[in-house]
From TrEMBL:
Listed GO biological process terms: DNA recombination; DNA replication initiation; DNA replication, synthesis of primer; double-strand break repair
Gene: priA
Species whose genome carries this gene: Ruminococcus difficilis
HAMAP family: PriA
Quaternary state and interactors: Component of the replication restart primosome.
Statement: the UniProt record of this protein carries the keyword Repeat: no
Record protein name field: Replication restart protein PriA
């Protein structure tokens, strides 16, 4: 005999038993793929949550049975379920890791439904059956609030049908406790009932009641608050009308759309060059194949205008759009513009939203109210059904890569979704990643180019300031003389300046003048940074901090000295030199509260400040026409990191920040301070010559076998015991070598390591890495997944966590 079967992925599964498990579906339970269920799992009678990946029919004699259906309708549709499998195989995680990334956190609380006894049960209690009374008594004994699963367990029920029955009879009610907790907001509304007209005939009404009825028959419906406000009655009047069935209450959900203070509704007429790019893209958008394009245009060339027009077109066609940005707080201008043009059709996704706000935006998308999702990484999961276009602005940015489980690359997911929907995927950048530009040149992507700044603006002039020469002339400060002169000139002319320093805190490190030891974090192999704001020395990795003191913990002499410069010190020093200047600092220390980025940027845009000092958050995306000077205080900081992408990152950062200058009527200038002016990357960035940079870099990548000529996969090992962690890394490597020599001889692979990670110790955990230069195809992923599964089931290394990270951000 065949039964209906659900194939279920289980929550909290470890990698080595993460499979689609078969369960029998009880007669009549309307289980659909994409719904969550509860079912027995493992030994004993403990239950777990799971998600139904698919349905089937087979002989189910020895299968366990689904206990409960938790969702009335699927939380994941067909595309999302496929994406779930895609993420599992590409990111080496479990199904549920993927599910959790895809759903907004608030949705996961759905399970904690609570039952309460109705307040107006009153004397009816004594008329209830024994069983009903037992249930009511249990719930009342627990503060009148019991979580559904606990209640079922206590009652010994397999399902909730009896409780549903009691709910239908008005004895119990379910409250979506968690949703209430995260602040889902509803407004109590009132309207006349369908029977109002009949009931009102011949009924004697008070003047107050009449005025409410008048109002409702004029406006149709209103919130109770409005009714009271306009008629001057208290809520008892509508209450009475509702009790007499003349009116009814209902709830209206309000979506808390994150607000923006800026409103911007400029009209856009594309320039000739922009129009050409738009026309090409528009053709591709109409193609019935999935297409990938790169919009490559210098800073200020109006890439935003081009994709704005594309979005407008998609929106007119009734298609859905995802616009990804690297950092939402830095794009208030763009959000404001989209809100002004598209209103409620825009949903915004980013990590600073509250759980409730996120859930709201998610619901607006899944119900088809919102058609354009703007946001950071998580926007890629917007549950659209009719996707026509995905845009990734500043596609080279590292924020598109997730650094925690599941370690997905948003670009890959965007490609997946565009293939599914046959949609257009558009990457946009002034400094594309080397991989993307390579693919565009090879013809794998389409390429569209903008070569000129919009309007009369031109690229700024760039000066390289050699800081060695400054020392020779006796200037040991943070600022070169030429930068100081230019800041002063800008102050005199009422122009604004941006200063970039890629280091937060007051100093970069603390050392002892006597024993020369740098002061490091006790939990991490990282030096401490002094913060003047709280007078403490802090670790930027684990958050450890100690009050500042001058005594060296190693030699106990009072010789600790602050070295190097961070944003706090730059701010202090510039204020000393120019006491009249109004200075704004922006880094992660100043922007811990939710809306402060936006407030600060708005204040800067309104001319309330002269100088903006900050980390790389001031380098990107900002469009302030009054900024005519950009100063880079130390361009060397990122250049000499031991990472194949450090040149690309430095070139991109410098070009981006230089591009903030001179975007309005006035010609801009940029000054790059460096101790290594001979470094070609700095000269190329000064010339803002991406093509020259690319031509040099692609040669290096090819010779060294780095992306796009190979994929990089890092296998990470983390454990509390250094020796054991190292042992695990070596054992893994040995087993993998065996596998490669026997079953996977066809895989092209270069193995580097194992070795210590760049930061060896973080939060008292030791880290080792194995670098694999590979071809990221299904064969390679099969081999690596096999290794990881094998390792995760190996008791010997139970205390060592092993993970794989494809295209890691740093090695
Ligand atoms: P990019 O993203 O390429 O750096 P932006 O899209 O920010 O450039 O454009 C730079 C500036 O030029 C912005 O202030 C933008 O509003 C303006 N701009 C660009 N194209 C147009 C256009 N066609 N019409 C009006 N303003 C435009
Ligand atoms: Zn010392
Ligand atoms: Zn630390």
């Amino acid at each position: 005999m065949t039964d209906k079967i659900a194939y279920v992925a289980v929550e909290n599964a470890l990698l080595h038993f993460d499979n689609a498990f078969s369960y029998r579906i009880p007669e009549g339970m309307p289980v659909q793929a994409g719904c969550r269920v509860a079912m027995p799992f493992g030994r004993g009678d403990s239950k777990r949550q799971g998600i139904v990946l698919g349905l089937g029919e087979e002989d189910a004699d020895d299968l366990k049975t689904v206990s409960e259906l938790l969702d009335d309708e699927p939380v994941l549709n067909d595309e999302m379920l496929k994406m779930c499998s895609f993420i599992k195989s590409h990111c080496f995680c479990t199904y549920y890791d993927a599910v959790k990334a895809m759903l907004p956190a608030g949705i996961n609380y759905r399970l904690s439904l609570e039952y309460s006894v109705s307040a107006d049960l009153g004397d009816r209690f004594y008329d209830l059956s024994d069983e009903y009374r037992r249930i009511v008594t249990i719930i009342r004994s627990k503060n009148n609030k019991v979580e559904k699963h606990h209640l079922l367990q206590e009652l010994g029920y397999a399902d909730s049908s009896l409780l549903d029955q009691m709910e239908a009879e008005g004895i119990l009610f379910k409250n979506d406790a968690a949703l209430r907790r995260i602040g889902d907001k509803t407004i109590k509304m009132i309207r006349l009932s369908d029977d109002a007209e009949t009931l009102l005939q011949g009924m004697k009404l008070s003047a107050k009641q009449e005025s409410v009825i008048d109002l409702l028959s004029t406006v149709g419906s209103a919130s109770v608050k409005e009714v009271c406000y306009y008629t001057g009655v208290t809520t008892s009047v509508p209450d009475t009308l509702v009790r007499k069935n003349i009116a009814v209450y209902y709830d209206d959900e309000v979506f808390r759309v994150p607000r923006s203070s800026v409103s911007d509704k400029r009209e856009i007429t594309l320039t000739e060059e922009q129009q050409k790019a738009y026309d090409e893209l528009s053709t591709l958008y109409h193609s019935d194949k999935p297409e990938v394009s790169l919009l490559y245009g210098i800073t200020g060339s109006g890439k935003t205008s081009v994709f704005f027009k594309l979005i407008e077109q998609a929106s007119n066609d009734g298609k859905d759009v995802i616009l990804m940005v690297p950092e939402i707080a830095l794009t208030p201008q763009m959000i404001a513009m989209f809100r002004a043009h598209f209103g409620d059709k825009v949903a915004v996704f980013h990590s600073a939203l509250s759980l409730g706000e996120r859930l709201d935006e998610y619901k607006r998308v899944s119900r088809g109210i919102a058609k354009i999702a703007v946001g950071t990484r998580s926007a890629i999961f917007a549950p659209f059904q009719n996707l026509g276009l995905i845009i990734m602005d500043e596609e080279q940015e590292h924020t598109y890569k997730s650094e925690s489980k599941p370690r997905f690359n948003t670009k890959e997911l965007a490609k997946f979704r565009c293939s599914y929907h046959k949609a257009l995927l558009l990457f946009s950048s002034a400094t594309p990643s080397v991989e993307t530009y390579y693919y565009a040149n090879e013809g794998r992507y389409h390429k569209h180019v903008l070569t000129r700044r919009y309007g009369t603006a031109t690229l700024p002039d760039v000066v390289i300031a050699d800081m060695n020469e400054e020392i020779e002339v006796g200037n040991t400060g943070v600022f070169s003389n030429i930068l100081l002169q230019n800041i002063e000139e800008n102050l005199d002319n009422g122009k604004q300046s941006i200063l970039l320093l890629n280091r937060r805190g007051y100093n970069s490190y603390v050392t002892c003048n006597s024993c020369r030891e740098p002061l490091t974090c006790p939990n991490c192999s990282i030096s401490l940074t002094y913060h003047s704001a709280n007078n403490r020395m802090m670790c930027h990795y684990c958050g450890y901090s100690v009050p500042y003191r001058t005594e060296c913990p190693t030699c106990h002499s009072h010789s600790l000295r602050l070295r190097g410069t961070g944003t706090q010190r730059a701010e202090v020093e510039i204020a000393q030199i120019f006491p009249q200047a109004r200075i704004l600092r922006m880094d992660t220390d100043t922007t811990m509260t939710r809306s402060s980025h936006e407030k600060k940027l708005t204040a800067f845009a309104n001319g309330e400040y002269d100088i903006l000092v900050g980390t790389q958050m001031v380098a990107k995306g900002l469009d302030f026409p009054n900024v005519t000077l950009v100063g880079v205080l130390n361009a060397d900081h990122m250049l000499y990191l031991d990472d194949y992408r450090s040149y690309e990152n430095t070139f991109s950062l410098l070009t981006q920040v230089v591009g903030r200058s001179g975007r309005g009527k006035d010609k801009g200038r940029a000054i790059i301070q460096t101790y290594t002016p001979e470094n070609p990357i700095i000269a190329l960035a000064a010339r803002q010559d991406y093509d020259a940079f690319y031509n040099a870099e692609i040669g290096i990548r090819k010779a060294m076998l780095y992306p796009p000529f190979a994929s990089i996969c890092m296998v990470g090992f983390v454990g509390e015991n250094a020796k054991q962690t190292e042992g695990a890394a070596f054992a893994f490597t040995k087993q993998m070598t065996q596998l490669l020599q026997t079953e996977f001889t066809d895989i092209p692979l270069r193995v580097l390591g194992p070795s210590q990670a760049a930061v060896f110790k973080v939060s008292n955990k030791y880290r080792f890495k194995l670098i694999l230069k590979c071809r990221n195809d299904s064969r390679f992923r099969e081999m690596l997944a096999r290794m990881l599964v094998q390792f995760s089931s190996n008791r010997e290394f139970g205390n060592v966590t092993v993970y794989a990270d494809m295209d890691p951000l740093s090695l």
